[in-house]
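Supplementary Methods S3. Input chains for the assembly prediction are listed below.
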Amino acid sequence: MAGNSFGTAFRFTTWGESHGPAIGCVVDGCPPRIPLSEADIQPFLDRRRPGQSRHTTQRREPDRIRILSGVFEGQTTGTPIALVIENQDQRSKDYGEIAAKFRPGHADITYWQKYGIRDYRGGGRSSARETAMRVAAGAIARKVLGSAIRVRGALVRMGPHGINRAAWDWDAVDGNPFFCPDATAADRWAAELDAIRKAGSSLGAVIEIVATGVPAGLGEPIYDKLDSDLARALMTINAVKGVEIGDGFAAATLRGEDNADELRIGADGQPEFLANHAGGVLGGISTGQDVVARFAVKPTSSILTPRQTVDLDGNDTDIRTKGRHDPCVGIRAVPVGEAMVALVLADHLLRARGLGQTV
Amino acid sequence: MAGNSFGTAFRFTTWGESHGPAIGCVVDGCPPRIPLSEADIQPFLDRRRPGQSRHTTQRREPDRIRILSGVFEGQTTGTPIALVIENQDQRSKDYGEIAAKFRPGHADITYWQKYGIRDYRGGGRSSARETAMRVAAGAIARKVLGSAIRVRGALVRMGPHGINRAAWDWDAVDGNPFFCPDATAADRWAAELDAIRKAGSSLGAVIEIVATGVPAGLGEPIYDKLDSDLARALMTINAVKGVEIGDGFAAATLRGEDNADELRIGADGQPEFLANHAGGVLGGISTGQDVVARFAVKPTSSILTPRQTVDLDGNDTDIRTKGRHDPCVGIRAVPVGEAMVALVLADHLLRARGLGQTV
Amino acid sequence: MAGNSFGTAFRFTTWGESHGPAIGCVVDGCPPRIPLSEADIQPFLDRRRPGQSRHTTQRREPDRIRILSGVFEGQTTGTPIALVIENQDQRSKDYGEIAAKFRPGHADITYWQKYGIRDYRGGGRSSARETAMRVAAGAIARKVLGSAIRVRGALVRMGPHGINRAAWDWDAVDGNPFFCPDATAADRWAAELDAIRKAGSSLGAVIEIVATGVPAGLGEPIYDKLDSDLARALMTINAVKGVEIGDGFAAATLRGEDNADELRIGADGQPEFLANHAGGVLGGISTGQDVVARFAVKPTSSILTPRQTVDLDGNDTDIRTKGRHDPCVGIRAVPVGEAMVALVLADHLLRARGLGQTV
Amino acid sequence: MAGNSFGTAFRFTTWGESHGPAIGCVVDGCPPRIPLSEADIQPFLDRRRPGQSRHTTQRREPDRIRILSGVFEGQTTGTPIALVIENQDQRSKDYGEIAAKFRPGHADITYWQKYGIRDYRGGGRSSARETAMRVAAGAIARKVLGSAIRVRGALVRMGPHGINRAAWDWDAVDGNPFFCPDATAADRWAAELDAIRKAGSSLGAVIEIVATGVPAGLGEPIYDKLDSDLARALMTINAVKGVEIGDGFAAATLRGEDNADELRIGADGQPEFLANHAGGVLGGISTGQDVVARFAVKPTSSILTPRQTVDLDGNDTDIRTKGRHDPCVGIRAVPVGEAMVALVLADHLLRARGLGQTV
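Predicted structure tokens for the full assembly:
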């Protein structure tokens, strides 16, 4: 059944396989008269692009975005916006091994079980390459949100190593190859990840996304809550195994008097929260505070160490990933996570307007 | 915008407020000729019902379910099944305080910000009372899943206290008031929760849901993955702040060689996983292993300790919850979590069949 | 698969069988702070109610509507509005004949073919009784539309007999038992329908719905056009076999120069159409003119003349409808058609607002 | 709000403007392991392509379809199928007149009213060029339906001229430039349409689509009925103003005893209808008979005769269409109508399977 679309009022649909001729998406429901060109999208793709440091896969593609519809004389028209990126790095190679064997930890076996056929070239549809289109769609979502709403992400954990939250500096995020907000931690991580890469291993990660400027009142309870849509959105990203909002799992260890964010009347006469354990969402509706979401990415299963598996003929065998791999796929998940949060917020912004809210 | 439905092929819609005349739901898309009566649903409601031990709120309602449509001569007909529970414990009382003040940690303020009006009686629509209808709908989902698929839940953390997973015993779950699979832990928790209740405080919790017998091949990538739908489903439950699948956030701390579940050919000639770090889902599609999801519930904000807040007139004030409250709302979230997982699985089972899969 | 909901931003879901304990619906997505009570809905139900003249079925039910949720202190709250009508006229009778035989022209056989089970009592789910809930939901849609948008319907054909459009008088519509806008025609129809009823026969009808005050800009091309949603909406009504917009099928016989509605600048400086062949919709978007839709209702198949059919055991047999029947079901389809048009317009009004339109 | 998708289980989304770089669509939910290549799609596009006789617009484009995803080694994989056609005939020309004026009978003014911006080049998004992608998607739908289900269309009226239904010959349909099943009528139409074209005028048309081999049991009552989805689908086609099923509007003029299709047990022991006034649908569910739908296409408003209109500056003015035009756009609507019916049937086939039906 159809399942490659996300969003209700602002909806996007992606298509394409890792080693097919192209990948693309259709963004439907974008309001008209928003200035938009490829130059608004390309920088976000460049942030996600592999091969920018020794810490990410060396697949090198320019990932040049093209807008094929929905924009006229530099503005959106309200009609669907088609985006496409041609795949260029389709190096001809022998797929024999991954064609016949299931890579542990990958979707190889489940696509086979579900569909009875799979495009094994580079993971086919299940490749993280698909996330490039989320980033592209996310760039359009940011235009819908406007400049008052800002969505930023950071890597807050790499494998066993967390950050010092007291040292959080948004300006540091783009100053290291990890999107790490703690420059000191980033220095340590560089050495650590070199060792991991050389060992042919990989590390997991935790990413935190913070959206500032989100107006109060976004989210449609009970089943289209803002946080449940965020959870769904982030969980669709490759390799994600957990999602939390605000204090998240840590909230389970608190007592009620420590968890509830108290209120006072602020200097402007409006209610003001004294804390944000809730991560900006109460009852599925945004409070006007920062929306804070976090997600966990497992270590990639594409590692150089041979692993036990089976082949299509029903034999036990071993497999090891050759060539390019990401020692920490979580790094490149940062711009993807930002995009997904922006896409959820844009959808809910339009939904709230439909209800008559002035947001 | 409409947001009170969940599911695609198998969909349910709930309605009703805590202190309105009734709550209800409509289950649409249920296959025909499934034997169904109120007796199939009532036991699940009875498990969720408050007032069954001193550890849950003392609101006492029989929560008697009625089927108003969609069943004929003891079988489903394929038409919508309407379920209703009349609210009986609508004790007349003075709502003055919660009518005029926003309870911290509750949805009072966000409903007000979004809608400009709220039914403050018992939390109105945002009350956990709504979850009774999820449990009812979930009982129908279980019938769709059949007896080969079993969905069970357990409380694996109460506040700072975890369980000994080595002592996990499913039979223990219904033998203590916490749905705790570790009987020894449950004994300790009883004393602990008594103290918390007497102190007028509350604790958070973590619930684990395990679905066994799930066939491989459920889940529609990329945006309707089985795990992203589970994440969304569980995050819609009141007070939930985090969701994880399989190893979840712990996976972020692992190395690739430890996380990927290796494969061997089993005794029956079929591929067999040697571990289940993935929680039964790869690439958004079920593997045939147990589906394992966990979610974190914050401590209820309805506590006896006065908390700072503001009132409708823009004044600073204090509030404390009077009367009935749940010292650990996570307990009653166990049957709700089971229901949500069953509902997601039933939806995906029908979706997979639509694609021609024999599941 | 689920299929008992209609609408996207403003959505309703109906449930219930003709002879079950009740019928109901859930209206989801209604904006908050709209004054609403049963008294706003009941008059529309009274218009549709059978047994009001000798020309409609003599089933007598008060069809008393109850609002069970979503309204607080006389205003909508933005949460789902549950409506219910208890079925009172469930006269105990022998269903033996229609239980075992398929009535020609009815859905008896297709429900059986599709579901393998059917609630044969009064047609079960396929009964026109379901349309009472559309009328109720439509009354809420009218409140969303506000008083500037008016949706009215009229019977413009009864069997072979049309009306004199030059004699159209909206005031006449409620002055005869046919909702006929031509009082002279209505007089003739009364005699004609008496004869048809006495002969145990039935007549088809054509209903025209006109919505005035509809702002320009409603409708989401390409697949959620205003007119395609109207066509779908009207075609869901029992016994409807055709739908047309504006000139409809007659447009097929015109030449281009006669069909295109020319434009001039009006007295207010705004574009003004010189005609309305289009029925108020161009390219799926409302023009600001009257929206005009027409639909054809077949003659009911519940007639006194015996008809050839088969029974569940695979035998040829005959069947004739006993007791109450509507000699022209199209009459009661007038308020139902109005309701469906109002529901489509309300949905599109909210959708347009979500896009930022000031409608 | 998003509105460029159609279908639920089998869904397609189109994008693109008449004179943009390309048009395309994404088909999502197609079952896996169906043999598919461009050669399966191209012939249907060739049937729809303009410029094949003097009776259709002389815009000449090869309309070469490309599959960009979802097919691997000649078979569908269950992942989204992206289709694209590059626009080649983007002749550079002066759009000054249609840029500044609204063509009567076109969507120019409503797109302007709704979006405040429009791509005026060739009608932009509202151009019938979009229907090429429906035909392409429809070719995939036919593969889903399999060879036992056949969907064919014919022009049964051109302006004032009907056909002799007794002379209906499916083999004649592809033997004349009108898809007319009555060869004699086609001969007359050729001369008539020459005259119309030379006069710079245009004619409307009625198209009939017949699907044979449709199994009983397709359609999800009450709001996703097979016929209501057909009505919606056909009404989304450019210039369509009416839709009917079976006897359609003519049913309104019948008496009950003439309209209801009687039943007998057939030679194979199964129920058999003695007529098909219903057009193969009862209660929104297919009966197993031919599904018959008809739709009316208005005469194109792009004619050579000057028509009164207004310009963007609020002045009265005149406009006449220059260059290429279709004297009867209904001709090319025949393959489009076939495609839409095939798409609806494929969607409902998968939906029925999801419910457990063996169709």
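Chain B has a mean pLDDT of 94. The longest helix of chain B spans residues 333-354.
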